[in-house]
Amino acid sequence: MEAKLEPVAKKVKQEDWCEDGAGHAQSGENVDPGQPATDRFRATNLYDRQIRLWGWDAQQRLMKSKLLMYGLDGVGAEVLKNLMLGGIRQITIMDWQIAAESDLTTNFFLRRQDVGQLNRATATAERAKSLNITCALTAMEAQTSDVTVDLVKDYDLVVLNGVSHQEAVRIGNACRILGIPIFLSQICGFHAFFANDLNGLKFEIPPLKSFQPGNTAKTQSSRASLPSTSSGKRDNKELKLMGSSQGESCEIQELTISSPDLSVVLDVKAVRRSGLASPVPRRGYGLKKMDPYLNLELILTFAGRKGRYPTYGHSEDDFKDLKHVLAEIRPEGDSRVVEPEEMVTAEANFTCAILGGTLAQEVITVLTRRNYPIYNLYYLAANDACGSREYVE
Amino acid sequence: MIHFCVLSRLKQRVLVLSPGMKMAFDPQTQTKIDQAKVFMVGAGGIGCELLKNLLLTGFRDIHLIDLDTIEVSNLNRQFLFRSEHVGKPKAQIAALAAEEMCPEARITWYHESVIQPKFNVKFFGQFNLVLNALDNSAARSHVNRMCLAANVPLVESGSSGYLGNCKVIIKGTTECFDCQPPIGQKTYPGCTIRNTPSEPIHCIVWAKHLFNQLFGEADPDQDVSPDSEDPAADPEAGLLSNGTHQEHWSTVAETNETVIAHLAVQQNGAHQLQNGSNGNEAKKGTSTRAKAVACGYNSIDLFQKLFHQDISYLLSMSKLWEKRRRPEVLDVHSILKQKDEEKVWGSSSTEEHEDKRLWSLKQNVIVFMRAVKALKETMDKIETLVWDKDDENAMDFVTACANLRATCFGITTQSRYDTKQMAGNIIPAVASTNAIVAGLIIFNAVKVLQNRVDECRNLILKTFRDAVPATSPKRRVRITGVSKLLEPVKDCVSCSERVETSLRLNLETTTIKDFQDKILKGYFKMAQPDVSLDDSSGTVIIDSEFELNNKDKPLTACKILDGTRLKCSDFLQEYDITITVNHADDLPEDTLFESSKDANVVLAAMPSQAPDARTTPAQKRKSADDLAEASAEELKRFKRQEKEHLGFGHVNENGFPDQFLEILE
């Protein structure tokens, strides 16, 4: 049977599961206890499958959170989608670029008719808003220099996608002073990473495995420090028990993050030091010993010299330069796998999906202050499907 | 009716590589991608993300199939769907969205089950690649077998909560879906459910069975009334008929001791009654339904039958309670007379999740009565109800019944929220995990098209939060566990060349129907089995196209004796196997058969539609050296989850999401 099909409706319809566009955010107050809270009831149905993952408290925190995101590349589109579906209260997206042909293979919100016509943020917002009408989504056509302290201070979290090294550090510093968590993502071909600054944030985390029931003596020690992440140095994160009525097996612990700011994470020397202190573990035969630190050091050194990250647009020149840089920075006798040729390919959509999915999940972890967050670096070599959490200090 | 549609069939196929268009892969690969014809099975959580990824990667000829319709609880992750699409076929809406996203793509969609004669080996053979984005192991196993028969590479994937996995199945080269023994979902012996529940899940299983007995299609395996044949019970005790001594019980049931004392006195009389009504009825599993019909589904009478008389009857089986806590009977009238507790309906703090409150005993009774009334009204309209976790009344009924039974047995009661998770076997799901898994699928899919099978990987998505305690103080934590694909297992029932196997089972009690549903379909994953004797007579035992009149006969009645060889084949799957059956009467209780080769056992009590519901002694396989940081343990846990999607199962017991849930909730 041939069915006649209508194009997908793009109009924003008032959802039948939520009467008021932004109503759920206020549902905590002044609700007559005798009346069923309809919004809440609907939210519990709509978000049921994820509430079962991170809990209703966390879901409510997410539904009160405000996010500022600059850069609507493939990663930006993925992050936007995942957070809007999750039920975040408000997102402001910013971009300066006009949609280009090359965006069509990564930002799935853009269409051919947008190319050369519309700002990436504006065009993205137009199609993204129907994902979840309870999310207040606004687009701003702005440059990174417009991301000022005054703008940032109204948000709970900032995400930067594909901005320059200098601007990332500047905005990172502003956020650090304000105590606002910031994520920064960058894609270079099949290589991609995100860094973050979660300094000072407190997280409710599940008890560590080694502290679990049967091991109550350890559970009770009020100041157990996490095993060090640095070579020899005592770690500055500490765990303390929070009061819990759930009984010993469900003790929720509090983790306070202490980590360097973005300028350190993006600093070539710091990356090199961290890389040398964390040699790649021996892997079995047949799989590459891809090293995140040396690859990152290569990318950052390149960016430091050129003032931009390696791109597909200049692939031949950039590849030559990357090889030069690599010859300079690679220590003698070093056998770690570095893949400059994979840093100058076009961005693959699946790289964006994996990085954007991980980043969005971490944004949710940070906004809800629940669970153990990834800090301060996640590195992805997509063509080897290797994604790992790293730490630069 | 066939739901089938071809979008833009006539659109020209040109590889659009306009200047500035940047493709991630080399032109050769990109051409292969453009010309590839792929079959996507499932358009749900992973499916939506995958469809988007396929289009953006450059795939242009995509067939997709999904038998589901869109539900509200899908909208938090299945981003191609909007609330106005609720109730519509997923495949159709996904195809429309794909068409809008990429007009030059040709999408063919099917709103139906993939397990069908029309999707035969020839159908599968037309694709370069099949991509699984499924949520149940029955379909996974079937697609696996179809791809093996058609020799088409299959990319298999799954997700649960924060965890995900993706691997490639290529006949003769890599492990297939059935190579790893399924780590079956937990099933519960009938007598635990009917007589001696000790955990909330036992009560929930009982309540679901009760629903089917009262309102749905009664399954004899799902009897809910006390089982007088419980081997743990005293064969002489507890043979009092349910209805007979009603008034008597309601007066003396105050203490269990009194009940037992009275029982002892009445035993002789009761014994005869057992031979009459109750014994047979209990066996046939009709007593509960009959009782309900007799009282016109009067909720008070039903309550008394379920939570007073049946419990009294159980109490009379005194042997059961020698080492167990005795259950207590409930009296509906005295409960209803109780004052409302302080927590009245809807008085929860505004921050609290509606469904997470525990109901008081009285509230459970009220919900029970209301649900019975509502369900009866529905049943009057449509005759047979099918239990659905998203049906308010059905869910209320199961929650209340499970809680009332739990109260009888001194088991902690559960909130509606938790009951729903256990009864509906709900797997937590979130957009981000599916997005990552769909990205990993593209990774493997492209490698397959590039003919670089050695670069395909078995990928496991882990969580940092999960991995960190075990791996610190190490700094590096792999979020994607990467390992090489394993080689096929020699004796795999699906992908090995082996055509012979043998089973031990009780030929005198196993019926042809059990053999067909639980062994051939359940264990051997056949879709439409044909069976004949492997001798000169060639007598047909099971015909997939013609229902023979032997379904309820034991195997021995069909000339199947110790050592008989059975030729079993599946025309759709192009699959043949010869099974030698050996008689065994020493199998453990609730075990239907043993596969002599790997000592697999299958529970007789498992639901016939859940092929993976068998308890397999964890077959210890040496994990590959290059399993990176994805420990074998993790892999095992994942497989458990991956295969755990059908029918009943206690999510918190499958070793998977509970570690997060118990902490978060």
Q: How much β-strand is present in the residues of chain A?
A: 5-15%
Total individual domains of chain A: 3
What multimeric state do the chains show? Answer: heterodimer
Q: Kindly state the number of beta strands of chain B.
A: 17
Q: How much helix is in the residues of chain A?
A: 25-40%
Write the CATH fold name of the largest domain in chain B.
Arc Repressor Mutant, subunit A
Mean pLDDT of chain B: 76
Question: How does the overall form of chain A come out from the CA principal axes?
Answer: globular
* Low-confidence segments of chain B: 1-20, 235-285, 344-349, 598-635, 637-665
Q: What's the CATH first level of the largest domain in chain B?
A: Mainly Alpha
What integer value in Å does the Rg of chain A equal? 22 Å
Supply the CATH class of the largest domain in chain A: Alpha Beta
Can you count the beta strands of chain A?
A: 11
Largest interface, and how many residues on either side?
Answer: A-B, 116 and 100 residues
* CATH architecture call of the largest domain in chain A: 3-Layer(aba) Sandwich
Strand order of the largest sheet of chain A: 3-2-1-4-5-6-10-11
- Counted by DSSP, the helix tally of chain A is 13
Strand content of chain B: 5-15%
Subunit structure (chain B): Heterodimer.
GO molecular function, one term (chain B): transferase activity
InterPro entries (chain B): ThiF/MoeB/HesA (IPR045886), ThiF_NAD_FAD-bd (IPR000594), UAE_UbL_dom (IPR028077), Ub-E1_IAD_1 (IPR042449), Ub_act_enz_dom_a_sf (IPR023318), Uba2 (IPR030661), UBA_E1_SCCH (IPR019572), Ubiquitin-activating_enz (IPR035985)
Pathway (chain B): Protein modification; protein sumoylation
Please, could you describe this protein's structure?
The complex is a heterodimer of chains A (393) and B (665). Chain A is an alpha/beta fold and 393 residues long. Chain A has helices at 38-46, 48-54, 56-62, 74-86, 120-128, 149-152, 165-178, 216-220, 262-265, 268-277, 292-306, 315-329, 349-368; strands at 66-70, 90-95, 136-141, 157-161, 182-188, 191-197, 202-205, 239-241, 253-256, 377-381, 386-390. Chain B is 37% helix and 13% strand. Chain B is built from 20 helices and 17 strands. The radius of gyration of chain B is 27 Å and the shape is globular. Chain B has 3 domains: 2-8 and 24-183 and 428-456, Rossmann fold; 198-410, Ubiquitin activating enzymes (Uba3). Chain: B, domain 2 (Arc Repressor Mutant, subunit A), CATH 1.10.10.520; 500-596, Structural Genomics Hypothetical 15.5 Kd Protein In mrcA-pckA Intergenic Region, Chain A (Roll). Chain B has helices spanning 27-35, 45-57, 90-101, 121-125, 137-150, 190-194, 200-215, 246-252, 256-284, 287-294, 299-316, 332-337, 361-382, 392-408, 416-423, 431-449, 464-471, 512-523, 632-643, 658-664; strands at 4-6, 37-41, 61-65, 106-110, 129-132, 154-160, 163-169, 457-461, 477-478, 480-484, 500-505, 529-533, 540-542, 565-570, 575-583, 591-595, 600-603. Chain B is an alpha/beta fold and 665 residues long. The longest helix of chain B has 29 residues, at 256-284. In chain B, the strands form 2 sheets. A 9-stranded mixed beta sheet of chain B has the order 1-4-3-2-5-6-7-8-10, sandwiched between helices. Chains A and B meet through helix 1, helix 2, helix 3, helix 4 and helix 13 of A and strand 1, helix 2, helix 3, helix 16 and helix 17 of B. Chain A: It comes from Ramazzottius varieornatus.
